[in-house]
Amino acid sequence: MPPDIAPLPYRKQIRDTLFSTSALHAGLLFERFFPCWEEDFSLLKPQSSALEEFCAKFGRTGNDAAFADLLATCHSRLSRLVKARRGVELRATSTALLASGLGVDHPSENGFVFDHISGVPYLPGSTIKGMCRAWAGICGKERHVEELLGPETVDAGRGRVIFLPAYPASWPELGCDVICNHHRDYYGAKPEDRKYTENGFPTPMDIESPVPVTHLALAAGTEFVFRILPLDRDSAADDLARTGALLAEALRELGIGARTAVGYGTMDLQDTDTEKIAETWEKEVMTGIIRTFVSYSHQDRERVREFLADGAMRGIAPWLDSQDMLPEAGHSLEASLEQAIRHENISAITLFLTEHSLGSEWVQKEMELARRHDRHVIPILDSEDDRVVQGLTDMVQPYKPYYLRLGDDDALFSLLNTLIREAGADAADEVVLYLGHRDEGVRPGGLPEDWRRDYPVIDLRTREHRLVAVRNWDVKGWMPKDADEYRLYGQAIRDLSKALGRVEHLRVAGFAPLGIAGLIGSLWDRGTCVGRITCWNNRDKEEWSVDKQNPPEAGPEEWQLLSVEDDVDMGEGENILVGHFIQGMHMDAVSRWVGQRQDRFRVSRSIRLGFPQAIDAAMAPALALEIVQSCGWARQKYGASTVYWAAGIPMALMPLVTYLARARGRIVFLDCNLKSGEYVQAFEVY
Predict the structure, then answer these.
(1) Can you tell me the distance from the alpha carbon of 132 to that of 479, in angstroms, rounded to the nearest whole number?
(2) What's the pLDDT band for 330 if we cut at 50, 70, 90?
(3) What pTM, to 2 d.p., does this model score?
(4) Domain end among 256, 283, 310
(5) Rg of the chain's alpha carbons, rounded to an integer?
(6) Could you report the per-residue pLDDT of 564-602, keeping only the tens digit for each?
(7) 94 with 125, same domain?
(8) Among 657, 659, 649, CA closest to 625
(9) How many CB atoms lie within 10 A of CB 603?
(10) Do 621 and 578 belong together in one domain?
């Protein structure tokens, strides 16, 4: 018979006595005395009833004053430490089941983490820090929080904060849940021992019986106390606020512990300062125009420019040596490149890797600079040739050699997503879209300085802007040539709206055709999470803005700013043409153009609505509302199926109108080509 080895008694009667004791350390009971063993030390397959009995025992232990005092003493000691070190305490309540330590070895097949002193389940500080680091990686904030958490390397240095273990505020409720393995043979057996194969390959088969495995889990509604200490006294307040914001976001979005992929471990901070803490993430968002440094071989120049031209309308703004590098006195070429790579507006490096760039000395230097300054590299390969793929692995070490394929349909969207994530703009609630389509460059007159300073800026341009030298191109006369090109812009801006899924306040500036400006408001309309849209009126240097609202129905007798100037019969048809022009000659022009194409438009009436010559910031929201109402009024008055809409309103007003125009029936905007006098079907709103 084996000798007695403390603290694991093998006598069944000793074990049963301990398990029935009213007050016993729950962690010790679970880890060392759990009833899974037979008298001869053979393992008795644990049944769910044993875990359920343990949960009941755990609940009774919480009623014992001695263990309640142990937990209270633990909280008291940690609170004194937080106060002495000027740290912060945050309280969070679980919104789902929570399990920590399921991977710990245990006879029941799933372990659990219990505090060695009080016997209560807890969350180790390393687990909390690991969750924060994992969430920073998922949402692209690694660079922004590295100084807080420390670099994640083999010889990692410490960060600027310490995560203390988190304990339940009071004795929690412990219960059971089930993991169901449907393919035990596939996941558990050795390849040569698997029973189920298809065409000689091991395959998970539906004929296998599911095997439920019971494990412990804390109930939803458990309140935890999280504690964070600063290491740097000079930046303590800022470090704690930023870490608290990261913790709050990670708990809410990712969750802590095991099984987070199925919703376990999520929590909401209950602190009164939660909103203030969350606001500090604005400091982590890169402000200014988001750009990518492009590393490539000049032998691939045309292919690279074509790719970047397609990305221009999505907001991919490149830094190219041929366009952006200006000679500086005393600066070598390499120093100029390093300065560009280090610039705060460069969110990532885009590497075009081909047979040519593999042998480029300057591409190699740029990758060295990227590694030196810890810049994220986004590789784009023109082929999957073994030499190119191997070159990628050699060139971008220590980065993971994931890459995009030049020519793949989703390559541009993936590049856009990564750039926005690396800049932190995916977490920003205010973003600027710069519509520089009719401007030679980003100028103070086209983009307010405080907008560029305070918010991340997405620079939207045309394909032509990337392909044609601006000095030889009539940028002010440009517009999409047909409905198909407008559809391309619509899809591109739709991709951008997905990448900026959290934006709550959209700001628009720049010079563009009305159809481009209208697309912005129609894709970020009042049905999205955007609660406010603001446009910069460059002429008067004002912000024009509207909030989310459902415009009420109203007609001419209720309008204060609009007036019906002309209402002309155009013949048989189920549609109407509505125009907003100060001068009648513009309405005449679009009416003639539509009238010549009656077989296509089938318009019965042409209605011109006039508006004030001078519009200011106080007037703009009411005018945008009345323009939306006028389309609904005209449709209802004449029973129209479709409203064809043309306008000569200021560009700063256009996104405000289309933002409010949702659910007003089908409205098709006709944009005017200023050179030819032709009209283009730009976009539709419903």
Answers:
(1) 46
(2) very low
(3) 0.61
(4) 283
(5) 32
(6) 999 999 999 999 999 999 999 999 999 999 999 999 999
(7) yes
(8) 657
(9) 24
(10) yes
